[in-house]
Amino acid sequence: MIDTVDIHAHIIPGVDDGAVDFDEAVEMLKIAVKNGTTDLVATPHYLADNLRCAGLSVSELRARFEELKAVAAKYVPEINLHFGAEMYGVGNIESIIKSGNIISLNDNGYVLTEFAFNDSPKRALEIVRVLQNAGYKVVIAHPERYVFVKDNPRLIVPFLETGALLQINPQSILGDCDPVEQDVALSFLENSLAAIVASDCHSTFHRSPDLSDAYSFVFLNFSPEYAERLFHNNPKAVIRGEKLFL
């Protein structure tokens, strides 16, 4: 198995519905390392107006990340940690951009973006275009989970035409989810529409940071080259701010 790179992880303690404390965060990192992950981007929910998000500022989230990085250096030195966020597609995105408060992955221009699960494709596409017009590159978090995509997977095409990238969850690939989500995720893989697979981990047991089973599935059912692209080459390029080759 190749080294894997994870760009979607709720692992900063106490800032969202991910790791509850540093002990759990360390255990999550140990799981990641044990199963081949060398680099991981901490992506707390950001701008979501609900219980999944603590509503912390960019500077507060960075401070919490630095605390995690210091703990990880002591207990899990094998892993490279990077700062990012899973940014909610808020209606006032223009003002967030103007204030300089967009968080990109490893500060290199790629923005991991999610929408309300029942959002409209029109509104979601507008958010993507606003971010792109501001110079950001958009990675759409788990598109297979949105109602409009599950109802009609072809509605993802306009997003792809803008240059947006699709990040698929391993649980969706392996079927540990709504069966429709798995069907959509597999269709994206079959048509080479997915760009990245990332854990979207929240704990040691619910969506854990173990990418190995999903990697093996893609390796065996599609190709070793596609698995390497989804789990290493593309996410590594995102961290570095480089162009992806799809």
Report on this model:
With 246 residues, this protein is α/β, with parallel strands linked by helices. The protein has helices at 22-34, 58-75, 93-98, 121-133, 147-151, 157-161, 170-174, 179-190, 212-221, 224-240; strands at residues 4-9, 37-42, 45-46, 80-83, 86-88, 110-114, 137-141, 165-168, 196-197. The strands form two sheets. A six-stranded parallel β-sheet has the order 3-5-6-7-8-9. Strands 1-2-4 form a three-stranded parallel β-sheet. α1 (22-34) packs across α2 (58-75) and α9 (212-221) packs across α10 (224-240). The mean pLDDT is 95. α3 (93-98) links the parallel β5 (86-88) and β6 (110-114). The radius of gyration is 17 Å and the shape is globular.
- Strand segment tally: 9
Are there runs of 5+ residues with pLDDT below 50, and where? none
**Rg, Å, rounded:** 17 Å
Number of helices: 10
Beta-strand residue fraction: 15-25%
N-to-C SSE string, H for helix and E for strand: EHEEHEEHEHEHHEHHEHH
Helix content: 40-55%
Can you give keywords for this protein?
246 residues, alpha/beta, six-stranded parallel sheet, three-stranded parallel sheet, 10 helices, 9 strands, globular
What is the fold's blueprint, element by element?
Elements: E1 4-9, H1 22-34, E2 37-42, E3 45-46, H2 58-75, E4 80-83, E5 86-88, H3 93-98, E6 110-114, H4 121-133, E7 137-141, H5 147-151, H6 157-161, E8 165-168, H7 170-174, H8 179-190, E9 196-197, H9 212-221, H10 224-240
Parallel strand pairs: 1-2, 2-4, 3-5, 5-6, 6-7, 7-8, 8-9
Helix pairs in contact: 1-2, 9-10
